[in-house]
Amino acid sequence: MRGYFTAAGYYGLVDGRYMLFSSESEYYEYMEPEEERDAS
Question: I need a labelling partner for 8 at 20 to 30 A (CA). Which of 21, 22, 23, 40 fits?
């Protein structure tokens, strides 16, 4: 996982493209494997 902070939020790398997230933690949650999300 890879990304960087901007004034608008956090740009995280998803499938070769950067997507804007409101925070770095939101990016990490988005990138969690589905199995881990279902277990929570």
Answer: 40
* Residue 35 pLDDT grade (very low, low, confident, very high; cuts 50, 70, 90): low
Domain housing 10: 3-39
pLDDT for position 40: 58
DSSP conformation letters of 2-18: -EEEETTEEEEEETTEE
Closest among 2, 40, 5 to 22, alpha carbons compared: 5
State the Cα–Cα distance between residues 20 and 32, nearest whole angstrom: 16
How many domains is the chain partitioned into structurally? 1
